[in-house]
Sequence to fold (321 residues):
Amino acid sequence: MNPISKKVSINNVPIVRKKKFRSEEKKDMISGYLYIAPFFIIFAIIGLYPALFSFYLAFQKWNGLSPMTFNGLANFELVLTDPLFWKSVYNTIVMGIMGTAPQLLVGLILAYLLNMTFLKFKGFFRVTIFMPYLTSMVAVALIFSVLFSNHESSLANYVLTHFFGLDPIAWAASEWGTKIAISIMVFWRWVGYNTIIYLAGIQSIPNDLYEAATVDGANKFQQLLYITIPMMKPFIILTVFTSTVGAMQLFSEPTVFLGADAFTRDEAMTIVMYLYRDAFRLQSFGTASATAIILLVIISVFAVLNIRLTQGFGRKRGVSK
Fold:
């Protein structure tokens, strides 16, 4: 008898029933995998493979053309002993703090104001504040390169000379002028993004808490200090983490702002710019990959700290309840 068929007799008439090779459940499962397969294929090609290949390159010496030679930990040693790398780390941290800390504070204040009941045209203000985030980074950098140009008649120098009585600054030629201009650019672009997140967090706070605080005699400032900010801690931790990771990946702003001199000047060199310079200007893909792994370790440290803070906050809330 055929192993894949079964003979059955009904009214003395032989009927052959073929066994199904796959059940309906298996067919649905295969169909689901086929639907999601394009995402995983594209992710494996443009995401997973480059990451694994970069990790492999970190232990090789390769200029992109000649055969690879195993280099061990020499690439990491070369990067970690390079003063320019530590200068790039310093620049990244300084510009990250200058551009990130103010935007988080201002974003929280703007979100609190946008949630006020007496404020008119809330939709207009929300769109206006969020608009810089939707603007092309290259366009933003080009506009700020004009606003903070070295010319005395630029908008930034005009404000300094006519309103504060200060001398004009060569923004793109001085170290701190460059850092301040880039930090203001980062602040302007990301403050709206954080404001929207904070606004969503504020609107998730129950109004009963504010009503009870009003009955107890608490003013608006006390409600902000003892109700809004404590309830906003998860959102604040999230924005601090995402802003920190974004600051560590700073690249477009200094590159477009300084133009062709971006990779030849140490005062604005960031970690990602250092990585890009090694890979595509010096054709040293081994040290560039080693820099990428070091940057991954730095970002991972901040990720672990963020998770620890989030877990600790959750336990505290559970105990207080």
